[in-house]
Specification:
alpha/beta; Rossmann fold; 26% strand; globular
């Protein structure tokens, strides 16, 4: 059908750093072309060049047979290119139709804006591509999957023929993912060209026609999806064989460390987010909480880590070895032997402008081992930093000078985990989305470290929207739905069903949707 996008010798430098180096890539019209690679491989930079966000330092870009030099996304949009970002670009307070036309309103100067014809166009596209939505609904009232449909309808309204999707399934349920894939196939079958960025290789093989693999800012190969395996793709991405599934030997749980009984949580707006939540976590086990985001995970984490608004926990209890966690401050909870990796590392776990060494020390800076007299012991801090970088394979050049912002997302996450897993005297580790947005090589390292912590006798509460991660790591699994554990899979059930992973995902999905 011809070539929709052709890049020749495209490079992009930020100062002396080369994010993309001599990229040559062809994307065929009417295909789904996946772009995969480790965090920091250059995928996002490349698609931002195609979408006009970044100007290339050198090279040529041809779109639909025409050489182009985009200086803004608006120019890319005019050329028929659209992009759905990982974090949706929607205004919650506006309706579906208002979000779709935002920035592309067609009216005379000072003339009224008529939405009647626009709604008709939206409904026509929604029906054609299986994107059922109420044009008058407020975006704030929509689920994550429905918000994604708004983004797709926005591209269709702008008549985009080339559509870029950045990690589109990151926050979707399994059923929403299947619906998205059906939509992508429908778009492709009607002549649209899809460029798909994802780190989930199973999804690549399920939906893509071709796959280009990036490593260190370069394209290392492009292959038909039908003729490549998941281990082969992983090897191309990382440059070595990758353990796709962590070895998880049977657990021997000990005493109960965390005990939650009939916990109820009400927001300041009066919405009850946890309803009689009951569970316990024992030493030497991983209790995995599976569920669609928004069913009380965030409120549970707030309650356990001392971040809940005053009065929000209205009844029930959460105790650590018999001592209440409710109402205490995070520093007090940490001293009780709790460590925590939050859902949003950028907001609650790191300071991007600070160095890697400083971020590794946050929260541990009061420990006597890091002090000498009235100041810090620079030799001890240096030794500790080097050990963490080596042990967790943190890819960096100068930890004492390099800001954390210079690292990829996966390496930033490894900094957080290195710091939290190595706190002295931990009896409970709370992990929230430990591998979110992390590439397959970093996931391997992170999962190994979590299993090592469990084997050392630590009690671990794992909250993740990734069912594959929950199944691979958990000793027991609780399915969270509307603020309570709807079903719990015992240690024996998890061990028995882990081998049939795909079927187990479906079974868990029945309890969380």
């Amino acid at each position: 059908m011809g070539v929709a996008v052709r890049l020749s010798g495209v490079s992009k430098k930020f100062g002396s750093f080369a994010a993309n180096s001599n990229i040559s890539l062809s994307v065929e019209k009417g295909t789904i072309h996946a772009l995969v690679g480790e965090n920091g491989a250059g995928k996002s930079t490349l698609t931002k060049i195609i979408y006009g966000i970044h100007l290339p330092t050198s090279g040529e870009m041809v779109i639909q047979g025409k050489t182009v030099h985009f200086t803004s996304p608006r120019e890319a949009i005019k050329a028929g290119i659209g992009m759905v970002h990982q974090h949706f670009m929607l205004v919650p307070e506006l309706s579906v139709v208002e979000n779709i036309i935002l920035g592309h309103e067609q009216t005379s100067l000072f003339g009224p804006l008529s939405l009647k014809n626009t709604k008709a166009l939206i409904l026509k596209d929604a029906e054609a591509y299986g994107l059922a939505l109420d044009p008058d609904a407020l975006v704030a009232s929509l689920s994550i999957g429905e918000q994604q449909r708004v983004e797709i309808l926005k591209l269709l309204f702008r008549q985009a023929d080339i559509m870029i999707f950045d990690e589109p399934t990151a926050v979707l349920t399994p059923s929403e993912t299947e619906r998205l894939f059906a939509t992508l196939r429908s778009l492709r079958d009607k002549g649209k060209t899809i460029i798909l960025i994802t780190h989930k290789l199973d999804e690549v093989l399920a939906v893509a026609d071709a796959v280009s693999v990036m490593r260190n800012g370069e394209i290392v190969g492009t292959v038909p999806a039908a003729s490549v395996t998941k281990p082969e793709l992983a090897r191309m991405m990382v440059g070595r064989s990758v353990l796709l599934r962590v070895t998880n030997p049977p657990a021997s749980p000990g005493e109960t460390i965390l005990n939650i009984k009939r916990l109820r949580f009400r927001t300041p707006q009066g919405e009850e987010r946890l309803h009689d939540l009951t569970l316990n976590v024992r030493a030497g086990e991983i209790y995995g909480i599976a569920g669609v985001e928004g069913n009380g995970q965030s409120e549970l984490l707030q309650a356990l880590w001392g971040l809940a608004p005053v009065g929000s926990v209205i009844s029930g209890e959460a105790t650590l070895k018999g001592h209440s966690l409710i109402g205490k401050k995070p520093a007090e909870i940490a001293l009780m032997g709790v460590s925590h990796t939050p859902e949003n590392r950028l907001r609650h776990a790191v300071v991007l402008e600070y160095t890697i060494a400083e971020n590794l020390l946050f929260g541990r800076h009061r420990e006597p081992a890091f002090h000498k007299g009235i100041g810090f012991n620079s030799r001890t801090i240096k030794s500790y930093t080097e050990a963490m970088i080596s042990d967790f394979d943190i890819r960096c050049s100068s930890p004492e000078r390099q800001p954390l912002s210079a690292l990829s997302g996966g390496n930033q996450q490894k900094v957080v985990l290195a710091r939290e897993l190595n706190r002295p005297g931990i009896s409970l580790l709370i992990l929230a989305q430990p591998a979110r947005g992390v590439d397959i090589g970093a996931i391997e390292t992170i999962h190994k470290k979590i299993i090592e912590a469990r084997k050392s006798g630590m009690a671990i509460l794992l909250v993740s929207s990734e069912l594959e991660e929950i199944i691979a790591l958990s000793t027991r699994i609780g399915c969270l739905y509307k603020g309570s554990i709807r079903h719990e899979f015992s240690q024996e059930e998890v061990a028995l069903k882990r081998e049939a992973e795909h079927e187990f995902e479906k079974e868990i999905g029945l309890h969380i949707t």
